[in-house]
């Protein structure tokens, strides 16, 4: 463990808590993409299967349970409890265009052709594009509530910090995982446009408005 | 590169 990965995990946890709290407190999921949340649920489910088989550390196991629980809770709130507030009209990204290529790529490019490893690889590829429905929805509605933009910022920063973690691990442990790194770069780059808007607008107290 | 035997990251 290193400071970059710890801060990254904390930022990731913060993002998930911010979102869950926003939906729960406002009793509404307006402006939130349920499709992205479904994809995140799929990412954690396919990646954390080893929760039962391999024990790495208490921290690792606890965080996996928290991420899975928070993800399922968010999906439950969006699609069951507060589904009347779910914005179908703006959450229209075709997620099959993300899932199918991720499956294909995981079968083609992986470290080991075993079920758990293929699922892990699929989760890495899918996570790199899972935010697209949410970013697409923000661009369609043309704006995002500030709490939603804080959520997106924390979520984008988490994988950015993981990039620093991978640089550190390459230098300090001579260990690197090219699949995770390439997907992590793609994932972080997708947020760049949002990062720019967040820094220049939201941090100045303005609403996040995308140029129409 | 020492390929990750197990994935120790979240």
From TrEMBL, chain A:
PROSITE patterns: ER_LUMEN_RECEPTOR_1, ER_LUMEN_RECEPTOR_2. Its main location: endoplasmic reticulum. It is found in: Endoplasmic reticulum membrane. The keyword Membrane applies. It is a multi-pass membrane protein. GO terms for molecular function: ER retention sequence binding. Pfam families: ER_lumen_recept. One of its GO terms (cellular component) is endoplasmic reticulum membrane. The keyword Membrane applies. One of its GO terms (biological process) is vesicle-mediated transport. Keywords: Endoplasmic reticulum, ER-Golgi transport, Membrane, Protein transport, Receptor, Transmembrane, Transmembrane helix, Transport. The chain crosses the membrane at residues 62-80, 92-109, 115-138, 150-172, 178-199. Belongs to the ERD2 family. This is ER lumen protein-retaining receptor.
């Amino acid at each position: 463990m290193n400071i970059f990965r710890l801060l990254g995990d904390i930022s990731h946890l913060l993002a998930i808590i911010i979102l869950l709290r926003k939906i729960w407190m406002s009793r509404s999921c307006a402006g939130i993409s349920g499709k992205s949340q479904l994809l995140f649920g799929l990412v954690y489910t396919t990646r954390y299967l080893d929760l039962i088989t391999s024990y790495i550390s208490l921290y690792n196991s606890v965080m996996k349970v928290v991420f899975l629980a928070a993800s399922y809770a968010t999906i439950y709130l969006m699609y069951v409890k507060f589904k009347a507030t779910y914005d179908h009209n703006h959450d229209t990204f075709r997620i099959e265009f993300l899932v199918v290529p991720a499956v294909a790529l995981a079968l083609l490019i992986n470290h080991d052709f075993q079920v758990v490893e293929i699922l892990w690889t699929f989760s890495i590829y899918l996570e790199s594009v899972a935010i697209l429905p949410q970013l697409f929805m923000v661009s369609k509605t043309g704006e995002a509530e500030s709490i939603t933009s804080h959520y997106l910022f924390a979520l984008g920063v988490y994988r950015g910090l993981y990039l620093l973690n991978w640089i550190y691990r390459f230098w300090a442990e001579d260990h690197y995982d090219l699949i995770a790194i390439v997907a992590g770069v793609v994932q972080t780059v997708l947020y760049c446009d949002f990062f720019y808007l967040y820094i220049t607008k939201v941090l100045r107290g303005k609403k996040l408005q995308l140029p129409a | 590169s020492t390929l990750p035997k197990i994935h120790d990251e979240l």
